[in-house]
Amino acid sequence: MACVYIPVQNSEEEVRVSLDQLPRDASDILDILKAEQAPLDVWLIIAREYFKQGKIEQFRQILLEGSSHEIDEYYAEVRYERIAILNALGAYYSYLGKIETKQREKDEHFILATQYYNKASRIDMHDPSTWVGKGQLLLAKGELEQASAAFKIVLDGDRDNVPALLGQACVQFNRGFYSDSLELYKRALQVFPNCPGPVRLGIGLCRYKLGQFEKARQAFQRVLQLDPENVEALVALGIIDFQTNEAYGIQKGMEKMQRAFEIYPYCAMALNYLANHFFFTGQHFLVEQLTETALTVCDHGLMKSHAYYNLARCYHTKGDYEKAGLYYMASVKEINKPRDFVLPYYGLGQVQLKLGDFRSSLSNFEKVLDVYPENCESLKAVGHIYVQLGQTEKALETLRKATKIDPRDAQAFLELGELLIPSDTGAALDAFKTAHGLLKKGGDEVSIELLNNIGVLHFERGEFELAEQIFKEALGDGVWLYVMDGRIRNSSMDSRDSTDQYKDMKLFHQLEEDGFSLELPWDKVTTLFNHARLLEQLHDTEKANILYRLILFKYPDYLDAYLRLAAIAKSRNNIQLSIELIGNALKVNEKCPNALSMLGSLELKSDDWVKAKDTFRAAGDATDGKDSYATLSLGNWNYFAAVRSEKRGPKLEATHLEKAKELYTKVLVQHPGNLYAANGAGVVLAEKGRFDVSKDIFTQVHEAASGSVFVQMPDIWVNLAHVYFAQGHFGLAVKMYQNCLKRFCYSTDAQVLLYLARTHYEAEQWQDCKRTLLRAIHLAPSNYTLRFDAGVAMQKFSASTLQKTKRSADEVRSTVAELKNAVRVFSQLSAASSYHIHGFDEKKIETHVGYCKHLLDAAKVHCEAAEREEQQNRQRLEVARQVSLAEEARRKAEEQRKFQLERRKQEDELKKVMQQEEHFLRIKEQWKTSLPMPSSKRKDRSQAEDDDGGNSEKKRRKGGKRRKKDKNVKGRYEMEEADNEMMDEHDEMEEDVNMINDQQEDGGENAQDLLVAAGLEDSDAEDETAPSSAVNRRRRAWSESDEDEQLEMVPRESSPPAGDRENSAELPESDGEIRENDFRDDGSDKPNRDAGDDDEVDD
Amino acid sequence: MKLAGLKSVPDAHDESIWAATWVPATDARPALLLTGSLDETVRLWSPDELVPAGTNTGHCLGVVSVAAHPSGVIAASASLDSFVRVFDVDTNATLSTLEAPPSEVWNMQFDPKGTVLAVAGGGSASVKLWDTATWQLIATLAVPRPEGPKPSDKSGSGKFVLSVAWSPDGRRLACGSMDGTISVFDVSRAKFLHNLEGHFMPVRSLVFSPIDARVLFSASDDGHVHMYDSEGKSLIGAMSGHASWVLSVDASPDGAAIATGSSDRTVRLWDLNMRAAVQTMSNHSDQVWGVAFRPPGGTGVRAGRLASVSDDKSISLYDYS
Questions:
Q1: What residues of B are in contact with residue A837 (Cβ under 8 Å)?
Q2: pLDDT at A299
Q3: What is the ipTM of this complex?
Q4: Which stretches of A156-209 are assigned E, i.e. beta strand?
Q5: Which of B18, B154, B263 is nearest residue A746 as measured by Cβ atoms?
Q6: Has residue B10 got a pLDDT over 80?
C-alpha cells in the first residue's frame, strides 16, 4: 500500500497519508500540508495521485494552492518543486486545450498553459522539463517549428532526455519525416527501455508510414502486450489488417475495431472504419450512427472528412442526392488538399453530375484527375460532362485517353463511339466494335442498342451485308425471321385492293390465328425498323413493307413506319396512297414536322401549290422554324414560284427569288454545312446571272456531297453542268451530264438526257443531239416534246448542212433523208395532237412541216446543184490539169529560149548589149500577153445563199447567241434539299430529302428554244392570234437574232419591242407540271439509332 | 435453277440495243436471235456462238421492238418513226410495211398461232391487230380512258400503251400503259375485260406464264415484278429487288422461272416457287433493255438459253438449267 509521510513540523513524527484513501475534499489535505509546511514534492505527489484517480478538481486545487504567491514566498528556495508544480499545471492546461473542440476555450486553455510555463521559466530559464512542456504545448498548438526548437534546447542540454526525444519524434512525425521520427523514438526506447506503450505506438506509426507493415504490426502488438486496452494500437492493427484486403484480414481488423470501440467508444478513427465497413455490408443505419458519433467527438479535419464522406456515401447509395451532395460538400470542406483525401471530390462530382450541375462536377472530377491523372472512371465522367457541355473536342480527347489507359473498358469505348458518330463514323464503328468485342469476351450481355448502333454505322457506310448480320444478331429469334426468309408474305388479293396492302393488318391477324407468336419486344422495335430500312435500301421492298406493317400492328404509334411506307408508295408513284399514309402518321402526331414536310412535297408533286405552301409553313411552325427542311422547302417553293412564269409580273418573280434566297440563307446561318441550302443559294445566284459565284458554290457542294450513302445529290452535277453550259463550256457540260446520268439514276432520267441534247444542240453537234433525244424518247415515250425536239434537231441538221459552203452529194442525200424523218415526226405530232394535249400549237407544227418540205424542195435543187457542182468540179479539175500542162510546156520553152539568149549574149559584142536587151524584153512582153490565162473563177453560188437565207447573217447570229445562252439557263437549275444537318441528330427521324427538278420549265422551254433556234417562231402577231399558244416568255430575247435565219418565214415587222416580253409570257400546257424528283426518299430515310443509355459513371 | 454465262458479244451493234427476241427454229436452221438497236439496224445471230447471221437496214430512228412469228419464217421490227417492217427472216425480203397513223409503235407480239400481230399503239391508247396473211389492220383494241378528266396529266389524258402480251392459248391479250395499269382483252370478241392495278409507273414489258394461261407477269419502272391472275383480277404476288426500272421480263419455257432485265444493269432470275430472286447477273455495264428465253424445239437443241441485250451495245447469252 502506497502512502506518503508528511513530516510534522518541529517534531520527529510524521503523518501517514495513505494514497488510496485520500480524502474526498482536498481542503483537508491542503490544511495538513499548509499546517505542517510539508515539502513541495509531497504536494506534487498528492496532486498527481488525485489526477491518477481521476479527481481532476482536487488535483487542480492542490496545484493551484501549491503555485500561489504565499508558497512562492515561503518556499522561495525550493525551485525545482515549484517548477514541477507549474509545469504540471501547464501540461494539464495544454492537455485541456488539446482535447477542447471549441476554439475559444481551446485558446483560453492554451493561454493558461503558456502562462504557467512562462512562470516556471522565470524561476529557472534552463529547466529542461519546462522546455519539454513548452514544446508539448507548441506541438498541441500545431506550431511545429517552435516546438521543435523547444525540444532542441532540451536535447542540446541532455541528449537523452526522454520526453524531449519523444516530443521531437512527434514533431518529425507530423512534419512527415518518418525515418527521423523513428530514430528519435528508438533512442528514447534505448534510453528508457521500460517506457510505456505509446512510445512503441510512435514507432509503429512511423514504420507504418514508412511502409514497413510487418514491423509496424510487431510494434503495435508490443503496445498491446504492455497495454491490452490501447485503443490506438488496436485501431492501427485493425487498419493494417484491413489493408491485407483479404476476407480473413478484414474480419480480424473488424474484431479489433470492435474491441477498440468497446474500450473507448469515441475513437473517431475506429468509428470511421466501422462505418466504412457497415457501408459495405449495407447497414446504412449503423453507418449513420457511427459517423454521427465520430463527428461529434472528433475535431481532426481529415477524420471529419472521412466521417462526412461515409455519411454522404450512405445517402448517395440511397439515391438522396441532395443530402449526399451536402455531406460530400462538408467532407470536401474539411480537406485542405485534395491529395489527402480525394474520394469525396469524386463523390461530389458524381452527385453534381446527377443533379445536372456540370461545371461544378467537372471541376471536382478535375481535382480527382490532378491527383490520379490516369483514373479511368474520372476520365469517363469528365468526357461525359464535356459531351453534355457540347465541348466535343475535349470530350473526344478525354475519352480517347481513357480508352488508351484502360483498353478493356467497354463503357469508355461505348461513349467514345457515340461521340464519334457525327464526326467520324469509321472511328465510331471501330470503337463500338471494340466495345462489342470486350463485352462479348467478358461474357457480358451485349445491349441491343450497341448492336443497333454498329448495324446502323455499317449501313451508313454502305456495308449492307455486315449491317444485316448485326441486325440479325440483335434481333434474335422472332416472327421477322419468317418474313425475311419469305415464309410469310402477302397473300393474293384483288388487284384493285392491292394498294390497301400498305395498311392491311389482316395478314397479322391471320398469322395470330394460325398460332404464330407476333411477339415484338419494345427494345427491338428500333432495330427491326432499321432492318426494314436496310431491306428497303437493298430494294427488298416487299419484305420491308411487311416489317413496317408488323411494327405498326404492334405499335400503332410508331410514326416512322408510316412515313417509310408512305415513302415506298411515293417512290412507286402511288401518290394517293402515300398521302393517305401520311395522313395516318399525322393522326398519331398532327405536328410531326417530318410528316408535314413529306405531305408538302407530295402536294407539290400532285401540283397542289397552295396547299403545299401551307403545309411547309405548318412544318416550319411545328419546330419553331428550326426545321431546316421545312425552311428549305419553302425556299424551293418560292424559287419555283419565281421561275414558274405563270401570269406573274417581273416584280413578283424578283420577290419570290429574293424570298427564296432569304430562306436559303436562313438555313445556312443555322447550319452552315447544309448542302442543300448552299445549292439553293447557288441556284438563285445563277438565276441572277452570277455564274462565277454560283459555280464556286456548286463546286464546293459537289466536293462535299460524296461519302455517305445518304447524301446523294445528282442535282449538284446537273447544276454545275448548267453553269458550264451557260458559260459556253459545252464539252464540260456534256461530261457532267453524262456522269450524272451514269452515277445516279441508272441513266433513266429523260430530263437530264434532254439537257444533254440541248448542250449538243448548242454545240451544233446535231447527230449527237438527235441520238440523245431518241434515247430520251425511248425512256419517256409519252413525252411528245422530245419528239418535237428531235424533229427540230433533224431539221436544224439539214438546214445547216445545206448552208455549208462545201458539201458532197452524199451529205445532201443524207440531209434529204433526215428531212423526211423530220417531216414524218412533225406530221405524227400533228396527227397525235387530236388526242393528246402536248403543248404545241398545231399551226406551229404545220409551219415546221411546211418549212421542212420547203427545205426538202430546196434540197432537191441543192442535190442537183451539188451533183452539178461535182460534175463541174470534175470538169474544172480537168481544165486545170490541162492548163497546168500547158504552163509547164510554156515554161520549158521559155527556159530554152533564155538559154539560147544567154549564149547569144556571150557571143555578141559588149556595145550591142544594151540595144539587144531592150529589144529582147519587148519581145518577151509580147509573148507573155499572148499566152492563155488560167481560169480562177469559181462558180457563183449566190443562188444557194439566197435559199439559205441565214448565211450572210452569221455574224449577227453569233451576237444573238450569247444572249440566248444566258437567258436559256435561267430557270433550269435543279433544286434539291435535304436537311443533312439532321444526320447529326441520332435518335431522330431523318428528314426527307427532296430534289425537286425544275423540269417543267425546262421541258417546255427547251422546246421553245429549239423552236426559236429553228427560226420558226417569232411573232407578236402570233401571240395575238393565239394567246394560249406555247410562247415562252424568253423567246423575245432570241427572236431578234433568230429571225435572221428565217427571213422567208416570218414577216419582219413582227419582231416585238424589247421589254414587253411579259405580255407574251404564257405557260404552255405541257409545262403545267412541276416534276419533283425524290432521289432520296422521305420520311425516315435514315435508320433510327438508339442512343446508348446515358451512362453515368458509377462507383 | 440457275444461269451460267456462255458468251458475250461486245459492240454487237454500233449503238444501244433496245430489243431482242428469238426466231424459232425451222427445219432448215436452228433458232436465231433477233436484235434491234438505236443504230437503226436489226441483226440476226446464230445461237450459242452468236455469230452474226445478217444485218437488216431500212429503219429510221431507233429500233424499239422486234417480234418473231411462231413459224420462225417471218419476223417484224419496229422503230421510233412508227413503221413496222415485216420481213422474211432468211432472205430479208420486206413482206410488208405497216403503219397506222397517228398511232406509234412500241411493243409487238405475234399471237401463238401466228395469225395476228399485236402492236402496242402508244399514245393512241390502243393495241392494233394486224392480220398476218393479208397484213391488213383487223382490229383496234382501245383501252378505255379513265373516268374523270385529268387536266394536270402532262402525258395526255388517255392511256399510253407500251407493252403487249398474248396468253399462251391466244384467247387473251394484255397491254401495259405508262400510268401502270394493265388492260386485259378478250381477243375473239375484241372486247376490253378489265384492268389489273398495282403499278403506278410505266409497265414496259408483259409476259404470260407458258404453263398457266391465267398468270401474267409485269415489269414496271417502280422496280417491281407483279404476278397477276389475269382472269381473277388479283395480284398474286409482288417481287422486289431491282434497284431501278424493270425494263423487260420473260418466262422460262418450263414455267418455273422468269428472267428480268433492269436499268440497274442486272439480269435477275426469279424462282416462282420461292418468289425470290435466285440469281443476279451483272455482266452488263448499262441498262438491260431486253431478256429472252429461247423457245424449245429445233434439232437436238434441248438446253435452255437466255439472251440479254443492253445499252452497252452488247449481247449476252446464258445457259439456263
A1: 156-157
A2: 66
A3: 0.94
A4: none
A5: B263
A6: yes
